[in-house]
Amino acid sequence: TEMMRALGYPRIISMENFHTPNFMLVSEVLLWLVKRYEPQSDIPGDVDTEQDRVFFIKAVAQFMATKAHIKLNTKRLYQADGYAVKELLKVTSVLYGAMNTQGGERAELPEEDSTKFKFDLGSKIADLKAARQLASEITSKGAVLYDLLGKEVELREARTESIARPLEINEAEKVMKIAISSVLEEVQKTKDMLNNVALDEASLEAKIEKRKLELERSQKRLQTLQSVRPAFMDEYEKIEKQLEKQYSTYLEKFRNLTFMEQLLDDQRRTEQEMFEEAANMLRLIQNRLKEEEQHLLKSGGNDDSDLEIQEDEGSDSEGDLQATRHRISTETLLQGRVGTRIVGSMQGGDMEEDGDSGDSEIDLDEDEEEEEEDLEDDSMEIAPGKSSLRARKPEPLEQSDNDF
């Protein structure tokens, strides 16, 4: 915070700004530091999208590595939290130290001097490797020199003794002959190596020529193979076209099958719903028939009393026969028409007109005879009384078309 204030950053910065990731502030500070280090730098300041942010961080890190030789951790910069402050401090401390050494005045170099130091890092990789190798050699040579300087006290006495001793010509001549012979041996070895190099070069050239010939033959053979059409290629293309047709047919059938399965499922679902609805309606009808049957069974006592009154009004012999037939027909009709509702009164009272009663008795006799014939054909046994009426189950409504 103090360094940025001393460098002249227009905004006040505190550590509270970096408790949570604040990439906008980090990008603004980085761009300001780059411009402060080199005003002619052209680094895009777009940080709207994720790709733009990554490109911005990489551009700033590459600029600082090439221009200021400052290595920045791009991952921490992208986090834009407290760890990013440590990376920003590397650049800020360099600028702050330069300002202190120069008395707070920025050294404004001419445009030619500023462009003089621009170089491409990719073209200097070989020089960088050579510099590293020389640095390692300097270190090793320095260590050897340090060890030799430690032995200087002992070597100094031996050197002074050798210098003070008088030189003998015979020994010197002997040493010189030995040195000359060793040098001649080295020269001979070098000549032999040169001759071997020439032979090796000739053998390598022969191998190269041989490889070139093999390469040319292989290329010619490849061209001939590429120009020749395989025997099975026509059949392959024909089968490929048939396969495309079969695949299109398969797709069409698969779609139709899927559509038909869907229609079948819809039809089954509709039938199931209709079946459930019919079952519910049948259950309601059965309950209603049971209620009406119970209602008719309760009103059966009153009907028997009415029939007895009608039997007393007729003749003695014919009245008994008609009463029996009337009872049988009434019970049969009641059993067949359980679900029908009878409108009217069956109570016997005073007859106002004898003609009307005669006609009704004739119609009743005809209906009773027809009902007896139907009963004989169906071989049904009907017991007189109220117990037989209650014991029998109601017949369907289609059999009770005749009314009286």
From TrEMBL:
Highest taxon of the lineage: Eukaryota
Q: Does the UniProt entry include the keyword Metal-binding? A: no
Tell where it localizes: Cell projection, Cilium
Cross-referenced Pfam families = Cluap1
Q: Name one GO biological process term.
A: cilium assembly
Acidic residues: which segments have biased composition?
303-319, 350-380
**InterPro entries recorded for this chain?**
Clusterin-associated_protein-1 (IPR019366)
Stretches the record annotates as Disordered? 296-404
Region forming the signal peptide: none
Q: Which residues form a coiled coil?
A: 199-295
Entry GO CC: cilium; intraciliary transport particle B; microtubule organizing center
Q: Which UniProt keywords apply?
A: Cell projection, Cilium, Cilium biogenesis/degradation, Coiled coil
Q: Family membership, please give it.
A: Belongs to the CLUAP1 family.
Name the PANTHER family on file. Answer: CLUSTERIN ASSOCIATED PROTEIN 1, CLUSTERIN-ASSOCIATED PROTEIN 1
Supply the name of the protein: CLUA1 protein
Q: What organism does the record attribute this protein to?
A: Sterrhoptilus dennistouni
